Amino acid sequence: MTLSEGKEILRDSSRLWWQNTKDFWRRFRKHPLAVLGLVILIIYILMAIFAPFIAPHDPNKQSISNRLLPPMAFEGGTSEYPLGTDYLGRDILSRIIYGSRVSLLVGVISIAISVFVGFVLGAIAGYYRGFFDTVLSRFSELLMAFPFLIFTIFVMAILGPGFWNLIVALTFKAWVEFFRLVRGEIMSEMTKEYIEAARALGRSSKEIITLEIVPNIFHSVLVLATLRMGYMIITEASLSFLGIGVPPRIPAWGTMVADGRDYILNAWWISTLPGLAIVILVLSINLFGEGLRDVLDPRLKKD
Amino acid sequence: MLLDVKDLRVQFPSSRGLVKAVNGLTLSANKGEILGIVGESGSGKSMSLLSMLRLVPKPGEIVSGEINFNGDNLLKKSDREMRMLRGKDISMVFQDPMTTLNPVFPVGEQIREALRIHGLIKGERKWFFSDRKDRERERVLELMAEVGIPSPDLRYLEYPHQFSGGMQQRALIAIALAGEPQLLLADEPTTALDVTIQAQILELLNRINEEHGTTIILVTHDLGVAAEFTHRMVVMYAGLVLEQGPTRTLVEEPAHPYTQGLLNSIPRIEDRRKKIEAIPGTVPDLINMPPGCPFHQRCKYAKRECIGTELEMIEVDKGHQVRCILYT
């Protein structure tokens, strides 16, 4: 940056923002695997948004004459069903495309709610401590004592299958991790001198939390959120596999894997391909999250 | 008189009992002077400074006393009123500049934030946008130049870790100056810096004092620093003032045995043969304070009467007061 450039940037606030974005991208590019993860993630997101336009068939349309067709690269496959069909003659490719909607929505919504709840409660508990903190901490320890999958199965068994019930079951326990992370981070940030300095400048407690501490801990929350999102997607698939996730009429990858269970020896593609879709999605999310961690940590910023 | 502290007491409850960090502090600062507070670690000087902004960390609290700033008792103000005062009328510079700046924001933006908190710069509307931000940035660049940060344009967007210790401290002084405060509290502002940088920072504080007439209270454990840069000095020990007076008098004719001891323990380069005399013993336990003079256990002139009697400050010369039985 030259002197005149520096002046230019100061004159115009939008340039400042642009500069930061460019900075972010420059550092993010240094992690090729993270970029790959981001690209795959974007493909998945586009696929979910434009599913009706991309999918060659109606995902629920059955065609008895075209049952158990293999993918087109194998003997007996046709280009009409590029990834084959299942035991009811439904197009696997279309079902995978539509299935990405469930997986991504469940992942994003359950994580968003968990982060929000965990963040607010964790910030209050970590900053003010006291009775509120004690109660919440003990409650979170209680929830931590249950295995995640078993707990969600338990909640689903009570609520019954359904999209929003699934979200409730997943967030019921997932917020705890964000609560504990935020609470711990806030408590450690509280000991730093910049908090005292902010107070000496006349900032209120609310401003200190939101304007001083949150930007310092936001990156670790974001990284945990991306990593946990993969886990949420896997849990959703597991529940759907067990038949207690989303209702069977909505195409979901977990349900598809379960559908192919009985045909695994002579029609391997029914289970394998949606399984592969899950693996690739979760892997790309994790790769992206790892890269994000390296880029966002302000303490690692280097020129 | 700008600041007048009367019989201030700060206590911390602990599992062993009450820690009496500040124990009846009485001092005053006049407009435009640099007042030094010197003392060993644990003498309560930092706590006294924090209590002037009512920022004593929990669970500590100010149990009694008065802090009059421009005639208003700060201890009677509401939390909101105190917030309005902090960073505007009274600012503070901290000891460790590295940790005092928020690591995630550019330094210039942090200085701008100090202007924004108190709405010090008003903007004008042009179309739909206010030009407040731009005006604030201009002012920040001025402030950065004033505290001696070279090429502020370039450094505005740099992060704290890209600044050296001395530059960080300059940035913090710029933040403190943003509100054009009447009183600047400096808590060992040079302790974490190199000796050469120390002198520059002190020179800067001195210039601010001369140009703006800002009253500065400088807390330090370095008697040399205090002797060189302050107009008046207060010697604290165990949360109590033992001696106060014009810096010159205190350095040349120290009255209290403790001040004498402190001055004798400074190594002098011109006289190598002279032995450095350390004061024996340590600061008394702030939970079980000895009755009477807190220094009697380490004092070479201690008499039996020192133990029981609580002494008031005794005026030995004009403006020079001492708390010692030798002068009764």
Textual characterization of the structure:
The complex is a heterodimer of chains A (303) and B (328). Chain A has twelve helices and no strands. The model of chain A has no long low-confidence stretch (mean pLDDT 87). Chain A has helices at 3-11, 13-28, 32-49, 51-54, 92-128, 130-144, 148-159, 163-190, 193-200, 205-241, 253-259, 269-296. Chain A is globular, with a radius of gyration of 24 Å. Chain A has a single domain, classed as MetI-like fold, CATH 1.10.3720.10. With 328 residues, chain B is an alpha/beta fold. Chain B has two domains: 3-101 and 163-327, P-loop containing nucleotide triphosphate hydrolases (Rossmann fold, 3-Layer(aba) Sandwich); 102-162, no CATH class. Helix content of chain B is 32%, strand content 24%. In chain B, the strands form three sheets. Chain B has an eight-stranded mixed beta sheet with strand order 6-9-10-3-11-12-14-13, sandwiched between helices. A four-stranded antiparallel beta sheet of chain B has the order 2-1-4-5. In chain B, a hairpin with a 2-residue loop joins β11 and β12 (240-246). In chain B, α4 (107-117) runs parallel beside α7 (165-177). The two termini of chain B are 28 Å apart. At the A-B interface, α1, α2, α9 and α10 of A face α2, α4 and α5 of B.
Q: What would CATH call the class of chain A?
A: Mainly Alpha
How many separate structural domains of chain A? 1
**What is the count of helical runs of chain B?**
12
Number of domains of chain B: 2
Cα-atom radius of gyration of chain A = 24 Å
Taking Cα atoms only, what radius of gyration of chain B do you get, to the nearest Å? 21 Å
Q: What sort of overall outline of chain B do the alpha carbons produce when their principal axes are compared? A: globular
